[in-house]
Amino acid sequence: MSDFIHRLPKAELHLHLEGSVEPATLAELSRRHTTPLPFSGNKYEQASEGLPVLSEDEVRALYQYKDFLGFLMAFKAVTERLRTADDYELITYRMMERLRAQNVLHAEVYVSVGVVHWRGQEFSEVFRGIEAGRGHGEKDFGVSLLWIFDAVRHFGPDAAQRVVEEAVRCREQSASVIGFGIGGDDERRGPPELFREVYRSGRERGLRLTAHAGEAAGPESVWGAINLGAERIGHGLNAWQDRELMAALVERQIPVEICLSSNLRTGCCAAANKHPLKTYFDVGVMVTLNTDDPAMFETSLEQEYGLAQKEFGFSDEQLREIARNSFEASFLPAEKKLQFLDMVDAFS
Ligand code: ADE
Ligand code: ZN
Fold first, then answer.
1. H or E element, residue 250
2. Ligand 2 midpoint to CA 167 (Å)
3. For the chain, which has fewer Cβ within 10 Å, the N-terminal or C-terminal residue?
4. Which ligand 1 atom minimizes the distance to the CA of 215?
5. 292 CB near ligand 1 (under 6 Å)
6. pLDDT at residue 193 in the model
7. How is residue 38 annotated by DSSP?
8. In 3D, which of 306, 265, 269 has the Cα closest to residue 289?
9. Topology of 3-346 in CATH?
10. At what angle do helices 156-173 and 196-204 cross, to 10 degrees?
11. Are 55 and 99 in contact (CB under 8 A)?
12. Residues with catalytic annotation?
C-alpha cells in the first residue's frame, strides 16, 4: 500500500453497513444470537430452525461466493445475526474505526432497512443503535457519516415505499439520514420502472436518490435508474455497452460508484482487465472508488485505490482526482464539500 494512497483524504459513497462486519465481529454476534428468527409469514421467508455459532474461519468461508446470488445469500446470513440496538451500535462504531484508519473522512452508508422490515423487526430500535454508534464514532474518530436507507428491489415497490416512509420519519430525529436507494437481487426481475412512484415520493420529500444499476443487468437498467431520478449510479459496470448512455453520463456528470473487488468477487465482472473503470475515467465519466461490502469482499478503500493503480496504471494525481470526485459527488452541503476538497487539493 503506497503512503500517498494511505494518507490521501478520501470519501466512500457506496458502503453497506452490514457488509462491513469483519469475521471476528460476526463470530462474536453468532454467539449472541442462535435462536430462530420469528417467522413473519412473508413469502420470502422460511421458518428457521435456529442459527449455528460460527468460528472466524467459518465466517471467512461464508465470505467466499460462487456468484452474485451466492453473495446475496451470505449477506442475508450476516443480517440474521444483527438484531439488537447494541449489535448495530457495535458494527457502526467498528466500521468508523476502520474508516479513520485509512483516512476516509466522510462516508455515505447504506443500511438495509428493507431487510429489517422483512424480518418483521422494528426499525426504530435499529436506528437507535446505528445513531449511537455514529455519535461515538464521530466523537472518537472524527469521521463524518450520512445514512442512505436501502430497499430491496425483489421485495417490490410497496416494501420500498415503506423504506421511504421510514427514512422520512428517522430524518425528523436526525439530519444524518440523507437518502434512499435500491439494491438486492436481479435488476431484471425488479426493473427500475416498478419504482417510479417510490422515487417520486422520495424526491418530493427531500431525500437524495441513488440506485444500484448495471451491476448484474445491462445498460437499460442504468437508463432506468437515471429516468427514476437517481443522482448517482451504484456500480454502472455494464454502462459501456451503450454509447448514448456513456455520452449521457459524461455530459450530465452523473457520478458512478465503482466497486472493483465487489464486481470481481461476485463474478459480475470476469477479470480485472475487463473492468471498464479506466475507460470511464479516460472518457470523462465522474467515477468514484468504493468497497461496497469491505469485510465480505476482504477489501478496504485504500486497497481499492491500490488495485486501481496496479491494474490500470492510475497515477497518484489521477487518484487525487478520483478522491476529489468522491467529495464532489457526496450529498454533503456545499460548504462542507469545499472544506474537504481544499484538504484534497492541499494534500502532498
Ligand atoms: N447489498 C449489498 N451489496 C450489494 C450489491 N453489491 N448489490 C446489490 N445489493 C447489495
Ligand atoms: Zn452495493
1. helix 243-251
2. 18
3. C
4. 7
5. yes
6. 84
7. P
8. 306
9. TIM Barrel (3.20.20)
10. 10
11. no
12. 215
Closest protein CA for atom 9 of ligand 1: 184
Q: What is the pLDDT of residues 55-108, one digit of tens each?
A: 999 999 999 999 999 999 999 999 999 999 999 999 999 999 999 999 999 999
Q: What is the spatial distance between Cα 72 and Cα 69, in angstroms, rounded to a whole number?
A: 5
For 190-211, how does the pLDDT look when each residue is reduced to its tens digit (9 = 90+)? Answer: 678 899 999 999 999 999 999 9
What amino acid occupies position 98? Answer: R
The predicted model scores a pTM of 0.96
**What cell was used for 305?**
485505490
List strand residue ranges (DSSP E) for 197-334, in order: 208-213, 232-235, 256-258, 287-289
| Through-space distance between the first and last CA atoms of the chain, rounded to whole angstroms | 16
Question: Which of helix, strand or coil describes residue 257?
Answer: strand
**What cell was used for 223?**
437508463
Q: What is the mean pLDDT of the chain?
A: 95
DSSP 113-166: HHHHHHTT--HHHHHHHHHHHHHHHHHHH--EEEEEEEEEGGGHHHHHHHHHHH
Q: Is-contact 90 161, C-beta < 8 A?
A: no
Atom of ligand 1 nearest to the CA of 150: 1
**b/e sequence 55-90, b meaning 16+ C-beta within 10 Å:** eeeebeebbebeebeebbebbebbbbbbbbbebbbb
